[in-house]
Design goal:
This protein is an alpha+beta fold and 387 residues long. It has three domains: 10-126, Acyl-CoA dehydrogenase/oxidase, N-terminal domain (Butyryl-Coa Dehydrogenase, subunit A, domain 1, Orthogonal Bundle); 131-237, Butyryl-CoA Dehydrogenase, subunit A, domain 2 (Beta Barrel), CATH 2.40.110; 243-385, Butyryl-CoA Dehydrogenase, subunit A, domain 3. The chain has eleven helices and nine strands. It has a four-stranded antiparallel beta sheet with strand order 2-3-7-6, with no helix packed on it. A hairpin with a 2-residue loop joins strand 2 and strand 3 (155-166). Helix 7 (241-277) packs parallel to helix 9, helix 8 (289-317) packs antiparallel against helix 9 and helix 9 packs antiparallel against helix 10. The radius of gyration is 21 Å and the shape is globular.
Length: 387
């Protein structure tokens, strides 16, 4: 029985959702043998062919409407893909970024022509997406970005650089946050869709050497007078980018919270198995009262957090999730994630520091969740503003 023995919420118990979950599980078992996973880690990125295979199997763009080549699902289907990706240890396969963050920008804000042009290719894996927000000198303060997209004839010239870009090496469709009016802050921001295979002057920097998420490529991107057609401004109108970003950050933070809960449960499960089998001083580590108290405390708070995150998901499905609730879900879940993996590693003793043990990878992979999607300090500011 999983450590956080909270029943699946009602919204995940539909027969169609369960069938999809089973299909995605079978896909990973068939297409992701241990050898391939090791190759991803050694190369620092997922091979491009896997994205094509996932698209053909129906794992990409699952909530894209059918009229644009999608599968007509909803956020529950996206959660299935995210959960199965984590279950099979495929952290480098950024399906959550593609399905839950990038694709929805086009679905919700794209013009009719943009949807018809791009969404079918995002669904079949021909287009792999990334979103470029952060810059070397700008993190959470997006209104201060310096990347520009200035008018040039029937298009724009993009100049600047971005960093910490997930899918930076493999993506061929990059939603780039740029200033179309450098004299303005929020009102000067637009989302410029850069199709990289046709973009002279676009360059990828080195893959950044990270603490964790070994098979997830994170890169620098450079724009040197890159020409982008005028109809690649998302929504077809300048100055709407900041509002578009704010409209999607709630779902992004919710998916981070959901991923944190998966990590918490995995950490507890693997640690309980370890301490019940490992002996010290003539008894198992589980037999020490301290071990039981630490794990009991983590389970109790994990159960409470999972109920809260599930409630936020239910509200999101109804279109009722507020930005402060999404921020609270990310804050609570990721802070608990960090504490859980740290304490679980401690219970492994020296073996917890060895990378071949699952807890070591969970420890390294978990640190970033308190930073990306808006740092947890920003989450506290958002929550405070709602009070």
């Amino acid at each position: 029985m999983p450590a956080l023995n909270i029943p699946d919420p009602d919204f995940m118990q539909d027969e169609e959702i369960r069938m999809f979950d089973d299909a995605v599980d079978k896909f990973f078992k068939q297409h992701l043998p241990e050898k391939r996973l090791k190759e991803w880690e050694e190369n620092g990125q997922v091979d491009r062919e896997f994205w094509h295979e996932a698209g053909q199997a129906g794992l990409l763009g699952v909530s894209v409407p059918e009229e644009y080549g999608g599968h007509g699902g909803d956020f529950r289907h996206d959660l299935v893909v995210v959960n199965q990706t984590a279950k099979h240890g495929a952290s480098g396969f950024n399906a959550s970024l593609h399905n839950c963050i990038c694709v929805p920008y086009v679905v919700r804000y794209g013009t009719e022509e943009q949807k018809k042009r791009w969404l079918p290719k995002m669904v079949n894996g021909e287009l792999v997406t990334a979103i470029a927000m952060s810059e070397p000198g700008v993190g959470s303060d997006l209104q201060s970005i310096t990347t520009t997209a200035l008018k040039d004839g029937n298009g724009y010239r993009v100049n600047g650089s971005k960093t910490f870009i997930s899918n930076g090496q493999v993506a061929n469709f990059v939603i780039t946050v740029a200033k179309t009016d450098p004299n303005e802050r929020a009102k000067g921001i637009s989302l410029v869709c850069v199709e990289t295979e046709e973009a002279e002057g676009f360059a990828r920097g080195k893959k950044l050497d990270k603490i964790g998420l070994d098979s997830s490529d994170t890169s620098e991107l450079f724009y040197d007078d890159v020409f982008v057609p005028g109809d690649n401004i998302l929504g077809g109108e300048e100055g709407k980018g900041f509002a578009q970003l704010m409209g999607e950050l709630g779902q992004e933070r919710l998916i981070i919270a959901a991923g944190a809960m998966i990590a918490i449960e995995k950490a507890l499960d693997t640690t309980i198995e370890y301490v019940k089998g490992r002996k010290a001083f003539g008894q198992t580590i589980w037999d020490f009262q301290n071990t039981q108290f630490v794990l009991a405390d983590l389970k109790a708070r994990g159960m409470a957090a999972k109920v809260f995150v599930n409630d936020c998901i239910a509200r999101h499905l109804k279109g009722e999730l507020t930005l402060d609730a999404a921020a609270a879900a990310k804050l609570v879940a990721t802070e608990l994630q960090g504490e859980t993996v740290d304490k679980c590693l401690q219970l492994h003793g020296g073996w917890g520091y060895i990378n071949e043990y699952p807890i070591a990878r969970l420890f390294r992979d978990s640190r970033i969740t308190r930073i990306f999607g808006g740092s947890n300090e920003i989450m506290k500011m958002l929550i405070a503003r709602s009070m």
